[in-house]
Design goal:
The chain is of the alpha+beta class. It has six helices and nine strands; from the N terminus they run ααααβββαββββββα. The protein has two domains: about 60 residues; about 140 residues. A hairpin with a 7-residue loop joins β6 and β7. α1 runs antiparallel to α2 and α2 crosses α3.
Length: about 240
Amino acid sequence: MTRNLLLGIICSIAFLASCKSDAKELQTSTEASETTLTKSDTRERDSLQIVKKLESGGRDVNPAEISKMLDQTEELKQKSLAQKDGIPSVCPLLSPSDIASAFGIEESTVKESDGNRQSTPNSNSKSCFWRWNDSGIVVQISDNPLPEEVNDWGTRYINTKKSTGEKMMSSAEERFLFTDFKGPGKYNIYNPDLGKFYATKGEDLIISLIFNGNFKKRKQLSIATELLDAIFDKL
C-alpha cells in the first residue's frame, strides 16, 4: 500500500480537512526529494565521466579539481538554460564608461537608449544605442528564429554576408561584401564602408555593431574589436 493511498484512507476516517493539507505537504516533499536525487545522480554521472577522462589522459584524479570542473559544468548549463529564455538585454553589456574609453570622449557626453522598450517579448532581436555629439553606435543581438529547423543559422548568415553582401538605400545597385577580421566570435566579419561588424556566438546568436559618424576605417576596426571583446566577456 502506497503512502498516498494510506494517507487517503486515514483522511477519510478522521479529520479530512487537516489531512488534505498534510497530503499536499507530503507530495511537495516527495517531489523535492526526487529533484534532489536527480541532481545528485547527474553530478555523480558527470563526476565519473570526468574521472575517466582524466585517467585516460594519464592525469591524477584530484577531488578538488573534479569538484571545480563539476561546478563549471553546472554554471555552463545554467547559462544555456537562461539563454533559452530569451536574448539578453544589450544595454547592460556595455557601460557609458566603456563607450567613452573606446572612443576617447568624455563619459558625461554619452547618452544611452534602450532600443527595445516597445518590442514584443518574443522578438528575436534586442538593441541598444549610445549617442554623443553628432556620432553614435548601435549594438544589436539576434537569435536563431528557427532553431528546430536550422542548426547552422550563424554559418549561413555569415556566408551570405560574405558572398552576397548588403545594399544601401542610397545605392540600390551596389552591393557591399563583408570580409573576415580577428574577433571574439566563432565568425567575425565587417565592411568598413558601411561601418558594420558582425560576430557570432555559436550558431544561434549574432552580435552586430554599427557605427554612425565619421570614423576612420582603422579606428573602426580597433574600437569594434575592443567593444565586442567586452560584450562577449559578459555573454
